[in-house]
Automatic annotation (TrEMBL):
Residues 344-578 form the ABC transporter domain. It is a multi-pass membrane protein. It holds the Pfam family ABC_membrane. SMART domains: AAA (SM00382). This is ABC transporter ATP-binding protein. InterPro entries: AAA+_ATPase, ABC1_TM_dom, ABC1_TM_sf, ABC_transporter-like_ATP-bd, ABC_transporter-like_CS, P-loop_NTPase, Type_1_exporter.
């Protein structure tokens, strides 16, 4: 998509989004249109009352007539203001509703996009799209079309009223304002490249800030605060330069339009005075003409403002569309997984990350349902990658990963991830109650099931200290959890979902020996009757498994029943144990 100017594609996309977002709130949108129309009609009628009032006063009209005219003038002014405020209120509510719907769509899309997309777009960047871009877009979605059409209508009505007042006023203003329209369209879209660069720079800065702020502890612990601040200074300098260019580009165009509207007022004053001196216009007519010319300034400034906002919104629209158009790298399948423990098969699987060498080469194993496999090997040999393939964060380059006989590429992702639980050492505690954190906001999960899972994992004594039980707030300003407790909470999350395959990736690395002891007895109960693949760095974890796969740098080194491998002095597993690669 071109980034220069506002093109037909942008307008088409805007109208499509407009229809999509406004269809569910058609009534409110029509009310907004009616209010804007009322505001315009009241604005056009107001100078007429002024004109008749002044002419009447100068021609000694009856007091009653003057009172009625004055009252009408005030009433139209008041009604016009009321319509403007009501339109503002209605416009904001239409904007918020359409904005919220769009935000929900983007969050849904974000949650579906694959790990690779998230790796390249940090949360700060995504936030800027979900909130910053949508806020800009929502504003113009509700009002731009109505405002531009309404202001053009106002312009036509005012020009007609000027023509009726005196043909010479019409002769001056119709061509003058007619010429202003090409000025508007000529300037429109010119500042797009600068605006786009400004938005992109802002997004990049937010992504950078989010990354650094989430690494606060590491930065402080390593004394890196001054380096981070210096880097921030450099980035802010670059950002300010780009943002200033965007701001300058945005004001160039409205300024030329403003100059035109000032000129038109001076011309009205001169022509009106001249005609008045020649007694061809009454004082009331001159005042009405000046009043109309003042009103006439509004359409230009409102249209330029709306079009300026529209330009910014088009930048946001392009970014939002790019995000919505992004298809997850992994195509969804259609097959569903049944209930019960799932057999797992790796069939000559080879995998490399983009741009890298093979991480897994020709890995094969078959794990019957209800059995547990321990995966061991040196750091970086691909253990977590094997787990990620099972959860279908990635697809193998060669071979197939099968669950219950289905190639994972053919499975519906929601079915796969509903039946497979992944517990890693990275546990995110979300702002919400303990219940929310354990059920991940699924209201259908019964409290008794949650309490039983807490008990199985040995968290009951901790749970009993919580002031509000399952309603205790966690995360944010709520109760904090130690890293070990957080890992146990992650295990409860998995337990509550009753998975047919459990993937554990160094999940017990942050537990003290006592908690680890408790966890392992809980784990035995949890894994009984379920299939599990466990990345193990400790002998105690290995004791939970039936089979062991030893991975080496150039592929699988060994695969077989744990007891056989451990008993065999020449086995790879025995060598790893002796070398301390697996901790006793
Ligand atoms: N998202 C990624 N993109 C590119 N390369 C990656 C990615 N994730 C991991 N790697 C690389 O793949 C290799 C295997 O990583 P993996 O995390 O699977 O190893 P591991 O055996 O689990 O290591 P550890 O025992 O340290 O957890 C490493 O060389 C790593 O640098």
């Amino acid at each position: 998509m071109s980034s220069v100017g506002v093109g037909a594609t942008d307008l088409k996309a805007y109208l499509l989004l407009l229809r999509e977002q406004l269809a569910p709130q058609r009534r409110r949108f029509l009310l907004l249109a009616a209010l804007l129309l009322a505001e315009i009609l009241l604005q056009v009628s107001q100078p007429q009352f002024l004109r008749y009032f002044v002419n009447g006063a100068l021609n000694r009209a009856a007091e009653g007539t003057l009172l009625v005219l004055g009252g009408c003038y005030l009433a139209t002014a008041l009604a016009g203001q009321t319509a403007a405020v009501a339109a503002q209120h209605c416009g904001v509510s239409v904007a918020w509703n359409s904005g919220d719907r769009l935000r929900a769509r983007l969050v849904d899309q974000c949650l579906r996009l694959d790990a690779d997309y998230h790796r390249r777009h940090p949360p700060g960047e995504l936030l800027d799209r979900i909130d910053g871009d949508v806020t800009k877009l929502a504003g113009v979605l509700s009002r731009t079309v109505l405002d531009v059409v309404g202001q053009l209508l106002l312009m036509i009505c005012v020009l007609a009223a000027l023509c009726v007042l005196d043909w010479r006023l019409g002769l001056l203003y119709v061509p003058l304002w007619g010429a202003s329209l090409p000025l508007l369209t000529r300037g429109f879209g010119r500042s797009m490249p600068e605006l786009e660069a400004g938005r992109q720079a802002g997004t990049g800065l937010l992504g950078w800030l989010e990354e650094r702020l989430s690494a606060t502890e590491d930065i402080r612990a390593n004394g890196a605060v001054p380096h981070v601040l210096r880097d921030l200074g450099d980035r802010l300098t670059a950002y300010t330069a780009t943002a200033a260019r965007a701001a300058r580009a945005a004001v160039r165009w409205p300024m030329s339009v403003q100059a035109l509207s000032q000129l038109s007022f001076v011309l009205a004053l001169s022509l009106g005075t001249w005609l008045h001196q020649r007694r061809e216009l009454s004082t009331g007519d001159v005042l009405a003409a000046l009043s109309y010319v003042t009103v006439l300034r509004q359409p230009l400034s409102r249209i330029t403002q709306q079009l300026g906002e529209f330009e910014e919104a088009v930048v946001s629209l392009r970014r939002v569309r790019r995000m919505l158009a992004r298809r997850p790298g992994l195509a969804d399948g259609t097959a569903e997984l049944g209930a019960g423990a799932l057999p797992v098969e790796f069939d000559h699987v080879t995998f490399a990350y983009p741009g890298g060498g093979n991480v897994l080469s020709d890995v094969s194993f078959l794990l019957p349902p209800g059995r547990q496999l321990g995966v061991v090997g040196r750091t970086g040999c691909g253990k977590s990658t094997l787990i990620r393939l099972l959860f279908r964060f990635h697809d193998p380059d060669k071979g197939a990963v099968r669950l219950a006989g289905h190639d994972t590429r053919t499975l519906r992702l929601t079915s796969l991830r509903g039946r497979v639980a992944l517990v890693t050492q990275e546990v995110h505690i979300l702002s919400g109650t303990l219940r929310d954190n354990l059920t991940l906001f699924d209201p259908s999960v019964d409290d008794r099931r949650v309490l039983r899972a807490l008990d199985e994992v040995g968290l009951t004594p901790w749970y009993e200290t919580l002031p509000e039980g399952l309603d205790t707030p966690l995360g944010g300003a709520g109760t904090g959890l130690s890293a070990g407790q957080a890992q146990l909470v992650a295990l409860v999350r998995a337990w509550v979902r009753d998975p047919g395959l459990v993937l554990l990736d160094e999940f017990s690395s942050r537990l003290d020996p006592h908690s680890e002891q408790l966890l392992h007895s809980a784990l035995r109960r949890f894994l009984s009757g379920r299939t599990a693949v466990i990345v193990a760095h400790r002998l105690q974890t290995l004791r939970e498994v039936d089979q062991v796969l030893v991975l080496g740098e150039s592929g699988p080194l060994e695969y077989g029943p744990r007891e056989d491998l451990m008993a065999h002095p020449e086995s790879e597993l025995g060598r790893l144990l002796r070398a301390g690669e697996v901790i006793w």
